[in-house]
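Order emerges. One example.
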Amino acid sequence: MSHDVPADDARTPLDPQLYREIDRGEWARLAAGIPAPLSETEVVQIRGLGDRLDLAEVREVYLPLSRLLSLYAQANKSLGVETSAFLQEPDTTTPFVVGVAGSVAVGKSTIARLLRELMSRWPGTPRVELVTTDGFLYSNAELERRGLMQRKGFPESYDRRALVRFLTDVKSGAPEARAPFYSHLRYDIVPDAHVTVRRPDVVIVEGLNVLQPPPSPNEVAVSDLFDFSIYVDAESSHITEWFLERFLALKRGAFSNPNSFFNNFAHMSDEESVAFARGVWESINLPNLEENVLPTRHRATLVLQKAANHAVERVLLRKL
């Protein structure tokens, strides 16, 4: 499917003095000799709507990435143990926290789910939990009260302090940390529903704005509480196309559920749906990407650069 999409603005490349650039072939060779841990059925179950994730992509891109993350997590744990021994204190090592950022429709949710499955297969990180920042959006009622319903997804639509408190609990070693639950079917927070994290080995935090700097110098940024961060990158024209395709797929599937918030869009023709989705993209998601999400790319430890077919073509890893 093809739609007219806006031309991309020139992007500032990441500083080669700070990042090592690894092309797809070179990165894929890092998986040589590592058995593929997932079946095709499991990959299909993990894959998000519109994503084109397959076994080759898992083996060549995400298997070496999960191994790298497990090495970082194990090194972090070893440092914690050695530090506690040096201080003559009991071991107080806390979960390794990974942030996954990127635009709407770029595939970051699929990547976060996939990394949870892959990392849990490595011996040093058997317990991996995934939390999305959707749960820290203000409720629709609160967004309406604040006049932010048309800014849903922008930094100001999230309860940033609650997210920082949650991650502070995780990184302080609290026995459990609770995050609110967001229903995509209801398009709103579910009252009295929570995601509970009980000191796993790894916590993956996925969301649009997780690499945002703090609003003031005296406040903690969400990313200050990450041990490793990933930015999922693609040209804006490609993401636009993926967003439109995903909206059409949702219209034919999830939107047909009478309990869905978006059920009233199910009757639209494909042409009406594309026009509506383009309006949403150009008025909300694209401005948020350009103003808030993309400018945080340089804060990531690792950047996955996707091509038009959703496949990762390049990996940029910050130098130690």
User: Anything to note?
Assistant: Residues 138 and 207 are 14 Å apart (CA to CA).
